[in-house]
Structures are given as structure tokens and as C-alpha cells.
Sequence to fold (713 residues):
Amino acid sequence: MHINTREIKTFFYSQYFSDGLRMCAGILLPSLLGSFLHRFDIGLTLSLGALCICTIDSPGPLLHKRNAMAIGNAFLFVVAALTGFARLNVYTLGLEITLFSFLFSLFTVYGTRAASVGTSSLMIMIFMIDKAAKPNEVLGYSAIILAGGVWYLLFSLLFFGIRPYRAAQQTLGENITDIADFLRIKAAFYLPETDIDENYRKLVSQQIKVSQHQDVVREMLFKSRVMVKESTSASRILMLTFVDLVDMFEQIMATHYDYGEIRQKFGDTGVLSEIGILLQHMADEVDNIAYIVLTNTRRKFKGDFITELEQIKTRVDEIGKNDTGVSNLALKKILVNLRDLNDRVRSLYRYYQSKNSGALIDGVYTDEFSRFVTHQDYAAHIFFDNFSFSSSAFKHALRVSLVCLVGFILGKTVAIGHHSYWILLTIVVILKPGFSLSKQRNYQRLIGTVVGGIAGIAILKYIPSKDTQFILLVALMIGTYSFLRLNYVVAVLFMTPYVLILFKFLGVGLVVKERIMDTVIGSSIALIASYLIFPSWEFDQIQDSLKDVIQANLGYLAKVAESIAGIPVGTIDYKLARKEVYVKSANLSAAFERMTSEPKSKQKKVKDIHKFVVLNHILSSYIATIASTLLSKPPVADDADNLKLVKRSLAVLNDSSEKLGGGVVQTSILKQAVIEKASRRTNEQDEVLLKEQLGFINKISADIARVTGNILS
Fold:
């Protein structure tokens, strides 16, 4: 019960619920004000403009939100006006739908934010199709829609201006929760009942969530600080927490070993289960930090794991003494990582223990952080360069254009009722660049619409009170926009009864049959089109993801290689290489997940690609393990055998990169002859373990080369 209460509280403190409240208020207030002033028709039109612009209001830096919503408002007016005139003739309207569907769907080449501007423009086009406005009323009506969009823009800016870092804080809290879940999956590797292959699937899937949230937090923190131009206590704490969080995630990645081998060596001792249980307890404490960040509360770190760590140390020492011929070096390294993780958890707690915690560091932000933020290029040539069938974005835009034309024709000929624009709206919402995403959205939309329609009928039939219906309308609106990014099925489930109640208030009557039928028609067209019209299968594009992830790991390993060769490596350069690995690995994992939901006949080389994904994760984990050790010490020229091993791994990975069409990553040590009498590290045990880890990286690199050959064959 306690867990359920915590989860409910966490949701109400989350960015999802905050977004739901903001969007609901921004859309509903103009209509309520219009009703109060006896101009409900104008209020409703203002709300329509706000509804379209709110689709652009997704997480990100305030500057990006402002610019995107401003551009969206410009398109809102132009598209509303053109549609108002085009609808006077069915042929001009059909031509406009075809052209605009293509144009605005191609906005995906500029990223997610630009794609939402395109969606907003398509939405107002669709809503205007059945608006019976006379020619002399079109511009005035379009101006009111624009006013509604501008209202939402100002309302959103005011909302974030009051608490500029709250959105970043919420996203950071969600990211900490993701890392806690990632740590639990890692802990499962040490438990004897866990299937290692299946656990790897869970691990790479969870890594996608971690990476996506980290990217959003990185943008919101680093770019928001540039905009606000001041360093506050709250901003310093958030910056510190995020920087430490990324380092802690690497530490979790670094607690990686050949789990099959260590189970075989130490499974009977029971120490692995103790390590797994301790990691699960640490994950619970990380979850507590997430709750602290989300709720703005303070509490002391009560879960210090010194006693448990000492117990594990005693067990590890006993294994080293009693089991002759069995090295306990790997267990000692795991123990070191566990201690480091405990220190990092304690450090994160320290930021939230007192009101003066913001003074722990000054000048956290430097210009170096801007190098970690991805910058989107909005040059015009990018748009026109994609006018080719070799571009997946072009094929997607063409597919949307043709399908929208078919949907428009069906809406005018076979659809029942007076809201046939629902067919087009369903197509625009469901049809995504890849088949798997379209298929997923299709099922989610259908299930949500049918279940939501039944709920809507029940509300209207058994709750006749208009006051109660209005309260439910507001609650359903908040639920719709709160779950829009979190769980699309639930969002549609809330959306359908809210639309039905709204139409009842507008005097339209019960339209549930019409909505379900139009949704089925739109969903069917979208699903068939995604399979037959210029289909985009993941296998045809995944080679780029494979190449990118190998090159990222090459860059990461090159930094480690330089450190082994005694060349100083800057912390920022190292962290940039690490970030690149995490981003590219998440992209590859996401592409593989999409592939597994495609038709079986289109899933080529799926077993080999799964092997590649797992091997890539193991490789980056081992590099992180070595890097976390090397970079904590001054650079020292290492043993010649170690240099040979790392050079061999770099050469093998470079060869795989070339086979996939990628470039070769150069590092200075590849051009140098190995010094046979290089100085050795003082700690002999560290030297032995390092050699083992480099040997394993060499083996993994060879395995990746073999799997790459299988994929390309």
C-alpha cells in the first residue's frame, strides 16, 4: 500500500501531470471566459487555436518552446485562412489536403519539435474542413484562432516564467527513477534464478529510457541557464545532481562482468546473491532521491550500506583464502564499485539535506557544458535535400499525403455523420515514419476509443447532472493531456468520453457510434498504407545505427587507449565520448525494438542484430569499467602487452566500421610503435585485472566483427 501511495504522489508531482494541468487550463479558460461574457462561440474558437498550439508544448528549453509556438501560430493563421477559402470547392480542398499533408509531414527532417509544428498545422487544416464560414468571415475567424494560439503561447511562457527550473527538476526526477530501474535490472544478473539473455533484453530497453531522459534534462538545464543568465541555489543543485547522476550511471555500467563466468566460479558461495540484494536496496535509495527531487523535500540518508559492504568484504576475503586456484579479483573490483556507488548515493542526498546546499559549489556552469547539447540545424537545404526516394522522411510525407487524400474522399462518400474529419485526424495521429510505431499507435487508438466510448455512454446515461458532467469533463481533459506522453492508450481512453461530453454540451448529441466508425476507418487505412505504400522497414535502415554505435565505441575506447599509453585525457573529452556511446546505443536499441514488432517476414537477421546489441552493451560497459579506474589516476605508460591488446581491439572495430560504410577512428597510439620496456603500474592486482578486461574487450571486438559479417552477408 505504501508503494502505491508513493507512486500516486509521484505522478501528481511529475511533469506529466503538470503538463496536463497547464494544457487543460490553457484550452479551457478562453471558452469559460467566453461563456461568462455570453460570447461562447468566440471563446470556443479561441480554445481551438490553443488546442492546436498545445501540441507543440512538449518538454524542452523555454527558448525552443517559445520559438516553435511562435512559428506554429504563424502557420496556424495561414493554414486556417487558406483552408477556409479552399473548402468552398471540393477539388481545391482535396488539392490543399494533399499538398499540406506532404509539406507538414516532411517537417520531421528538422526533429521532433519541428514535427509537432507540422502536426499543429495539419490539425487546424482538418478542423477547418467542416467549418461553414462565408468568404467574408474566413479572415476574421482565422484571426480569432490565431488569438487563441497566441493566448496559449503567453500562458505557457508565464507558467514557466514563475518557476523556470521546475520542468527540469521534474524531468531530472523521472530520469533518476529510470536509473533506479536500470540498477535493479543490473542487480538481477547476480541472482541465480535470472535468465541472463532475457535480462540483457530488459537492460538495453531500459537504457533507451535513461538516455532519452538524460538528453531532455541536458537541454533543459544547459540551455535554460543560458536564457535565465543567472546562477541560483536551485539551478546549482540541479546542475550538480545531473552531473553526479551521469557519473553514477557510468558507475552502474562499470559494474559489469562476464556473469556466466562469475556464476560458475562463485555461484556456490552465496556472495553473488548478497551483491544482488544490496544493489536492489541501493536502487530503492536512488528511488528515494527521485522522490525528493520531484517533491522538493529534504531527508537524511538513512540507508548507508557500510555494514552490508563490510559483510561482503569479509565473504570475498574468505573466498580468496579458502578457494585455492580461484582468483577473487573480480569480486574485489565489484566491491570497489559498490563502495563508489554508495558514496555517490550519499553525495546526492547531501544536496537536499539543508537549505544551504546550493552553496556547496559556485560557478558550476561553464561554457564547456554547451558542447554536450545537440544543436539542430534548420538550414533550408536540409528540407529540399530530402526530396528523394532515398530519404525515409520523404517517403513518409508522400505516404501521409496519399493516405490523407484517400481518407478525405472516403469521408465525403462513405462516412456516416457530420464529423468525417475524424478520419483524417486519426490518420495524421497514427501514421508514423516506421511501420512498428504506426502499428502500435493504431492498436492503442482503437482500444482507447472503444473502451472510452463505452465509458462516455455510461457517464451520459447514468450521470444526468450537467455540473457533475462538467467536473468530469475537466478531470478527463487533465487525464488526457497528462497521459499523452506517458501512456497513449490511457490518454485516448480519457479523450473519447471527454469529447462525447463536450459535444453533448455543444448540443450535437451522442456521436459515439460515429467516432468509433471513423476511428476504425482511419486506423485501417493508416495500417494498410504503412504496410503497402513506400513501407519503411527497420532492417533497411539499421546499418546506419550499427555503424554509428561502433564509431562511438571506437571514440570511447580511443580515449582509454590514450590513457593507457600515458597520454593525458581531458575529463570533458572523455565525458563527450561517453555521452556519444550512450546516445548511439540507445538509438540502436530503439531501432531493434521497433524491428521486433514488425511482421516476421520483414525481420531479417534479427538474431544476429540482437547479438550485436548485447555485445555492444557489454563492450561499452567494459570500456566504462576500465575508464573509471584509469581516469582516477595520473596517466602512466602501461605494459606493452596491454598496449598491443587495445591496439588490436581498435583495429578490429575500425575494420567492422569500414564494412558498415563508416570511417576509421584515428588515435595517436595507432601510429606509434609499442615500447617493449614500458613502465608497469605499482598495483600488481590492478595490472592483472586490467589485462583480463582488455583481453575480454579484444574477444568482444572479434565477436562484433563476426556478427557484423553475418548481418552483411
Remarks:
- Residues 357-365, 673-682 have pLDDT under 50 and may be disordered.
